[in-house]
Design goal:
Structural class: mainly beta
Strand order of the largest sheet: 3-2-1-28
Radius of gyration: 18 Å
Strand content: over 45%
Distance between the termini: 31 Å
Helix content: under 10%
Number of strands: 28
Number of helices: 1
Length: about 325
């Protein structure tokens, strides 16, 4: 194991990625120690990347699309994949127990959502990639899970899984500006509308998705759902919200115009995360206990295919073109 250094930065920046013929979706297989690569045009697996031991879980691409970064749950470190060569190039450690990652939209800083970190608190770590050092830490409630930036990148919203809250952070000053507590444990998913005015937040055990006004940071609506809500993802046109009820093995589709449920789709095994393909045609859903990704036609709200991947798929990351 080594600290993040110059060699990592070179691996992340020198190997440029040329124009891709098709978009690719990376799926981490937690029990296969690998990534499955899905072509979003053909909806077929086109490659597998070995990741080594450590239980790889969440995955995120750097905004330039050249590298994908992976969190290892068991070994508590990070892996860096060269997307062009499709190889793991480094294993590095930042924080004590990282769970999820994000990048600032300009790609300059890596956000590490850290559980029981090396400082003793659950926190969001801001790592400056150029300076090769931690630029700031923001203590949050227990188990920071998902994060999403405001459209102007001046704020970042972070969900707290066990606390049932959303923390609003100023990434420039590394300060908390607001904390909204809804109390629904097992809360994770966040989705921001295209105009940036409304944040959808999965309220977990409250069995609802909240609508938060980003101007006032107040809840302005609540969408009841038939189960504990995990993920919340908007279609590209913003007309529908996809929510996973993983303990109930269901995927729920909500029409955002009137917040009405328009479809409830049974899933085979613990549906976790949802990603929309770049063309807006399909929603792709990891089913962790069924070793597959289900494909949902967004127009008809029907499942049209399943894609076999590795064992226990969980994380998803779409490679930027």
């Amino acid at each position: 194991m080594r600290n993040l250094g110059v060699t990592l930065l070179l691996a992340a920046t020198v190997c440029g990625a040329g124009p891709a013929a098709a978009a690719t979706l990376y799926i981490t297989n937690t029990k296969s120690d690998s990534v499955s690569i899905i072509d979003t045009d053909t909806l077929e697996v086109v490659g597998t990347i070995p990741l080594g031991k450590g239980k790889p879980n969440r995955i995120v691409f750097h905004p330039d699309g050249k590298t994908a970064w992976v969190v290892y749950d068991k070994s508590r470190d990070l892996g860096v994949i060269d997307a062009e060569t499709r190889k793991l190039v480094r294993r590095v450690r930042i924080g004590g127990n990282p769970y999820n990652l994000n990048f600032t939209p300009d790609g300059r800083q890596l956000l590490v959502l850290d559980w029981s970190s090396d400082t003793g608190s659950d926190e969001v770590i801001f790592y400056d990639l150029k300076a090769e050092k931690i630029a700031g830490r923001v203590e949050v409630s227990t188990w920071p899970a998902h994060s999403v930036f405001s459209r102007d990148a001046r704020l970042v919203y972070v969900s707290g899984e066990t606390a049932g809250d959303v923390t609003v952070i100023d990434p420039a000053t590394h300060q908390t500006v607001h904390r909204l507590v809804h109390g629904g444990g097992d809360a994770m998913g966040l989705a921001l509308t295209a105009d940036g005015k409304t944040l959808y937040a999965a309220a977990g055990e409250n069995k609802a998705v909240l609508k938060i006004d980003t101007g006032s940071h107040k809840v302005v609506g609540e969408i009841p759902l038939p189960g504990i809500v995990h993920e919340a993802t908007l279609t590209l046109d913003g007309q529908f919200l996809y929510a996973t009820l993983r303990k109930a093995n269901k995927l729920v589709v909500v029409r955002t115009a009137d917040d009405k449920i328009v479809a409830v789709l049974p899933q085979k095994g613990y549906p976790d995360l949802v990603t929309m393909d770049p063309g807006g045609r399909y929603a792709l859903v990891t089913n962790r206990y069924a070793d597959l990704v289900s494909v949902i036609d967004v127009k008809s709200h029907t499942q049209v295919k399943t894609i076999a991947v590795g064992r226990a798929p969980h994380g998803m990351a779409l490679r930027p073109r």
